[in-house]
């Protein structure tokens, strides 16, 4: 069967998600999931019917939450499907390219490679910001430029002035895709307000993080109506199951948004605690983070990661030397993780 697969797929290395990597323990801080397990009621009387392609109740609810019109919203199976739809809709395999800027989320490159679209790599600068001159030099044949803010795995925000400069640079040439999967933890940094000025902007959102619905797989693409209409040409006929639409709509109700806001505040407080505790350890660097995770540099990141893994504390290793990404979990999980790290590094901290 492997030989029957497209050559592009034969050579593909799948994205190693947290669940594919596995692990065994009682503290799971490797997937940027919420520790809150909220309850929902599921309406099961309509399961004999197909769902709407774009359920109006869900579209209207998210449009209201995001501060856009319903015509500017498309919902999909997580933001990951939004990435794939954009590449399928706008890139000709073998002709067009995307630009992505590592260290960043790996699915931009994998989705493009799966479809047969060339990837241009323009690394972030040393302070994890956009290298605008290098991006401009690589714009030939580029249809999409992916930017993640807060960036995963580094946690930093991309400078707003640079985002605007990129939008101006790519006008009538390429679409800038802002991945705002973690923006609910710092809504003041959103670029949604730029949609009114830039038709070449698309914004990816999700309910997986701040709304504690990673298992629901519900994401959104926000863009001008013309761009949304293009995506509707390539999306599956029934992308949002009926129970998903029902639960997501409950999460986006007034009560659901109030609950999410309270949980976001709790996680931001927890993030500050982990930052403060780990920053006090000699030889440890905690980078400023604006999502529900922190990137931490240790004297020996690989050893720390493996020791935590063996102790049942599952963190996420990083492509950045000696860095480990730590999701912000419950108070108990954070305290246990901090205590473990302090114990591991006690000799070097003394």
Short description:
The protein has 350 residues and is an alpha/beta fold. It contains twelve helices and 13 strands.
Task: Give the rounded overall mean pLDDT.
Answer: 94
How many strands, which pairing sense, and closed or not: the largest β-sheet? 7 strands, mixed
The top level CATH class name of the largest domain:
Alpha Beta
**What is the succession of H and E elements?**
HHEHEHEHEHEHEEEHHHEEHEEEH
| Helicity, as a percent range | 25-40%
**What is the count of helical runs?**
12
Strand order of the largest sheet: 2-8-7-6-5-3-4
* Computed structural class: alpha/beta
The number of strands is 13
Mass-distribution shape? globular
End-to-end Cα distance, whole Å, is 57 Å
CATH topology name of the largest domain: Aspartate Aminotransferase, domain 2
Give the radius of gyration: 20 Å
CATH superfamily assignment of the largest domain?
A: Type I PLP-dependent aspartate aminotransferase-like (Major domain)
**Poorly predicted residue ranges:** none
Please tell me the total number of domains.
2
Bin the strand percentage.
15-25%
> Judging by the overall fold, what is the CATH architecture of the largest domain?
3-Layer(aba) Sandwich
């Amino acid at each position: 069967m492997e030989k029957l697969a497209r050559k592009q797929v034969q050579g593909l290395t799948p994205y190693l998600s947290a669940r594919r990597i596995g692990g065994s323990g009682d503290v799971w801080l490797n997937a940027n999931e919420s520790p809150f397990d909220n309850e929902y009621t599921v309406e099961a009387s309509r399961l004999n019917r197909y769902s709407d392609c774009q359920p109006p109740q869900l579209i209207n609810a998210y449009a209201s939450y995001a501060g856009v019109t319903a015509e500017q919203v498309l919902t999909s199976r997580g933001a990951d499907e939004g990435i794939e739809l954009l590449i399928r809709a706008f890139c000709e395999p073998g002709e067009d390219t995307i630009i992505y800027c590592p260290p960043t989320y790996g699915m931009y490159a994998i989705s493009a490679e799966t479809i047969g679209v060339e990837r241009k790599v323009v690394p972030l600068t040393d302070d994890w910001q956009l290298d605008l001159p290098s991006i401009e030099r690589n714009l030939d044949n580029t249809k999409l430029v992916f930017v993640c803010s807060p960036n995963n795995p580094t946690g930093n925000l991309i400078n707003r002035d640079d985002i605007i400069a990129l939008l101006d640079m790519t006008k009538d040439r390429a679409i800038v895709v802002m991945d705002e999967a973690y923006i609910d933890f710092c809504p003041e940094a959103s670029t949604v307000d730029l949609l009114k000025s830039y038709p070449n902007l698309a914004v990816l959102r999700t309910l997986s993080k701040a709304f504690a619905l990673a298992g629901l797989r519900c994401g959104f693409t926000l863009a001008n109506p013309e761009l949304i209409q293009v995506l509707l040409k390539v999306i599956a006929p029934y992308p949002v199951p009926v129970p998903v639409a029902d639960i997501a709509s409950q999460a986006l109700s007034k009560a659901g948004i109030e609950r999410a806001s309270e949980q976001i505040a709790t996680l931001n407080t927890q993030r500050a605690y982990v930052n403060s505790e780990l920053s006090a350890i000699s030889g440890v660097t905690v980078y400023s983070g604006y999502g529900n995770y922190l990137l931490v540099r240790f004297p020996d990141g690989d050893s720390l990661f493996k020791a935590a893994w063996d102790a049942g504390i599952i963190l996420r290793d990083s492509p950045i030397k000696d860095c480990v990404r730590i999701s912000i979990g419950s108070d108990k999980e954070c305290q246990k993780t901090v205590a473990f790290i302090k114990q591991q590094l006690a000799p070097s901290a003394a």
